[in-house]
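Possible regression after last week's pipeline update?

I re-ran a chain I had predicted before the update to compare outputs. Posting the input and the new output here so someone can diff against the archived version. Not blocking, just want to make sure nothing changed silently.
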Amino acid sequence: MMTLEDCRFFYAQEVRWAANLTSPALIGAYARVPREKYLGPPPWQIGSADLRALTVSTLGGPAQRKPDEPRDPAKQGPDATGKPLTMYRSTENPQDLYHNVVVALDAARDINNGQPSALALWIEALSGGLLFEMKSIRTDPHEPSEACLVHGPGVCVSSAETAAAQAK
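New output (post-update):
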């Protein structure tokens, strides 16, 4: 059985190939950051890009409703069996988060955390030299320092090696 660490490594490789990433630092970040920690408690509502694109563009999804109108799964059109398509599927298994899928933050308003491969592509394109300076992703509590390239609550992109890497 795969561990969450195995799933994170597989996920990083999936995002790498989907976005054609070249930055080892960014790929490594996808392999290390615990995605489930930033998505709220389960159950999670997961959506695939392919199903979402089909639903939105051709089957009466959000593109065919007013922005303030709640999403009605019954208006999303039938699948091949006549059942209504839904844009999200529910899961409580954190391993299911480690695919190139979006996770709903507010399913009723179709707000999600963003397509991992698209975000990775944009980060790599916009990063300039930042990713070459990145040595670690820190999730330990600490005060901001000069080594913090991006510092936020619970996570920090750092130019400092981790203690484990320094010990090698």
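Follow-up from reviewer: compared with the archived run. The chain is about 35% helix and 15% strand. Marking as no regression found.
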